[in-house]
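Exercise 7. Given the encoded structure of a 263-residue chain, write a plausible sequence.
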């Protein structure tokens, strides 16, 4: 499950794909290309079309505006305190994913709504100032061979939180945090109670519903020709909106609140 979906790594990318990856990093303002884009790169013509469709949203700050609205009413499950000294890279990972996952949730959610005909009939998200992504150096994205077996088992256990009935995608955030297994143990202990009482799952579903409404309005700003592979792109994007990104937006934010680092 180190690469749960076919994906082109940034190191493997050449030609047009490498150029698109570079443009994604520069436009979104991140150092790492999200798995969804690397997965789309494995499908003939999917990445060029999808990125061209949503890039104007990023440039005009539309996902940023949606994120600001979303966070005003976001349902955040209450975790036991995760305050305390940790390697600086832990908070770098959390800050990076807190920003990029939320921004991508709205851009990808809008793309999905546009592809499946669920664009809002009225309403508009106004362009606004872009919220700069944290420019932070992240540790290596760990695979199973990079860590101790017990650490990888911990990563897989964490990935089950908030994803029912069975995770389809291994959330990259946990792989980036695999260099700090003691912190992941603390996260597991904090997430277990809210998973057991159902509040974590309820928060994720409520936040996904709110995000979907905003994304359907954001989709009104997409202007593109429907591609031949529309169904395949919609299915791929939907996996991330409903699973990895859809759950981690809530989980990452809750962890940062519990650490006292959420801005």
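Solution.
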């Amino acid at each position: 499950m180190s690469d749960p979906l076919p994906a082109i790594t940034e190191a493997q990318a050449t030609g047009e794909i490498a150029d698109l990856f570079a443009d994604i990093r520069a436009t979104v303002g991140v150092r790492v290309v999200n798995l969804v884009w690397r997965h789309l790169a494995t499908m003939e013509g999917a990445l060029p079309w999808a990125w061209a469709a949503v890039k104007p949203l990023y440039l005009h700050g539309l996902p940023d505006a949606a994120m600001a609205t979303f966070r005003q009413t976001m349902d955040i499950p209450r975790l036991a305190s995760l305050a305390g000294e940790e390697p600086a890279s832990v908070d770098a990972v959390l800050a990076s994913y807190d920003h990029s996952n939320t921004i991508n949730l709205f851009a990808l959610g809008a793309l999905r709504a546009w592809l499946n005909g669920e664009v809002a009939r009225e309403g508009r998200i106004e362009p606004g100032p872009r919220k700069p992504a944290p420019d932070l150096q992240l540790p290596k994205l760990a695979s199973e061979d990079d860590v101790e077996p017990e650490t990888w088992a911990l990563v897989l256990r964490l990935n089950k939180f908030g994803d029912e009935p069975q995770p389809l995608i291994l959330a990259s955030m946990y792989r980036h945090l695999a260099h700090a297994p003691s912190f992941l143990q603390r996260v597991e202990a904090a997430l277990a109670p809210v998973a057991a009482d159902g509040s974590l799952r309820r928060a994720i579903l409520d936040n996904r519903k709110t995000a979907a409404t905003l994304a359907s309005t954001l989709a009104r700003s997409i202007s593109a020709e429907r591609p031949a592979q529309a169904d395949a792109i919609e299915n791929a994007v939907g996996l991330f909106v409903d699973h990895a990104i859809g759950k981690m937006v809530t989980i990452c934010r809750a962890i940062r609140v519990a650490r006292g680092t959420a801005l």
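Remark. The chain has a mean pLDDT of 93. Students should compare their own answers with the one above.
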